[in-house]
C-alpha cells in the first residue's frame, strides 16, 4: 500500500484552505455577486403571488416546486462566475501549473461558491417559505433538502463553468449543458418537501439527495479539473 507522505498531505490541505479563504474574501469584496442570486430569489418569490393569485391554499400547494425551481435558477445565475475572474487575470493558469492536486483546488472553488450562494439560500428559505404559506411542518425538510441539493447543483454547475470558462459568452451554453443534470435534484428536492406536507417521512428523498451529493463530491472535481485543462489549453 502506497501512502502519501504526511508533510505533502498537510501542504495540500493548507493550500486548499488558503484557496478557499481567498475565494471567500474575494466574494465578500464583491457583494453584488452574492446579492444577485439572493435578490433574484426574493424577487421571483414575491412575483408568484401576483401570477397565481394571493390565495393561501393555492400558494401553499405550489410552494415546494416554486422554491426549488427558483433556487435552481439562482444557482445557475452564479455558476458562470466560478472561474471567470481567475481565468481573465491568469490566476487559473498558474493554478493548473502548481504541484498541488487540482481535485482539491476545484473542490475549494465550488465550496466557496456554495457557501456564498446555496448555503445562504438554504438559510433564508424558511422566510421565503412562510411568504408562500408553506406549512411549518415542511420547513425542516425544505432547508435540509436545499442544503444537500444546492451542493449537488454547485458541483454540477462547476463542471459547466469549467468547460465554458474560455468562452466570452458561455452563459447560455452552460445552461444547456447542465440543466438536464439538475432535473433529478429538482425532482427529489421538491419531492422531499411534498412528502413532509403529506405527513410522510422525507428521509427516502433526502437519502437520495445525500447519495447524489457523495457521488458529486467524488466525481465532479475530476470532471472540473479535466474541463479546466481543456479550456485553458485551447
TrEMBL record:
Keywords: Cell inner membrane, Cell membrane, Cytochrome c-type biogenesis, Membrane, Transmembrane, Transmembrane helix, Transport
Record has Transmembrane as a keyword: yes
Single GO BP term: cytochrome complex assembly
Assigned protein family: Belongs to the CcmB/CycW/HelB family.
Xref: PANTHER family: CYTOCHROME C BIOGENESIS B-RELATED, HEME EXPORTER PROTEIN B
Protein purpose: Required for the export of heme to the periplasm for the biogenesis of c-type cytochromes.
Protein name: Heme exporter protein B
Amino acid at each position: 500500500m502506497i501512502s502519501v507522505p504526511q508533510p505533502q498531505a498537510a501542504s495540500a490541505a493548507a493550500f486548499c484552505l488558503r484557496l478557499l479563504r481567498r475565494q471567500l474574501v474575494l466574494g465578500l469584496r464583491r457583494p453584488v455577486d452574492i446579492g444577485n442570486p439572493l435578490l433574484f430569489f426574493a424577487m421571483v418569490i414575491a412575483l408568484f403571488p401576483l401570477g397565481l393569485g394571493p390565495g393561501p391554499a393555492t400558494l401553499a400547494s405550489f410552494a415546494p416546486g416554486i422554491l426549488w425551481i427558483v433556487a435552481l435558477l439562482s444557482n445557475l445565475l452564479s455558476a458562470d462566475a466560478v472561474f471567470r475572474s481567475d481565468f481573465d487575470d491568469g490566476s487559473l493558469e498558474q493554478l493548473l501549473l502548481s504541484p498541488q492536486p487540482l481535485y482539491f483546488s476545484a473542490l475549494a472553488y465550488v465550496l466557496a461558491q456554495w457557501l456564498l450562494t446555496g448555503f445562504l439560500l438554504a438559510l433564508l428559505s424558511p422566510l421565503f417559505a412562510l411568504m408562500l404559506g408553506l406549512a411549518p411542518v415542511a420547513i425542516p425538510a425544505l432547508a435540509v433538502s436545499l442544503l444537500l441539493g444546492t451542493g449537488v447543483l454547485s458541483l454540477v454547475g462547476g463542471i459547466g463553468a469549467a468547460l465554458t470558462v474560455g468562452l466570452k459568452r458561455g452563459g447560455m451554453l452552460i445552461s444547456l449543458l447542465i440543466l438536464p443534470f439538475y432535473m433529478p435534484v429538482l425532482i427529489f428536492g421538491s419531492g422531499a418537501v411534498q412528502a413532509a406536507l403529506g405527513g410522510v417521512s422525507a428521509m427516502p428523498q433526502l437519502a437520495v439527495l445525500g447519495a447524489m451529493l457523495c457521488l458529486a463530491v467524488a466525481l465532479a472535481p475530476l470532471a472540473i479539473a479535466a474541463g479546466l485543462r481543456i479550456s485553458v489549453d485551447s
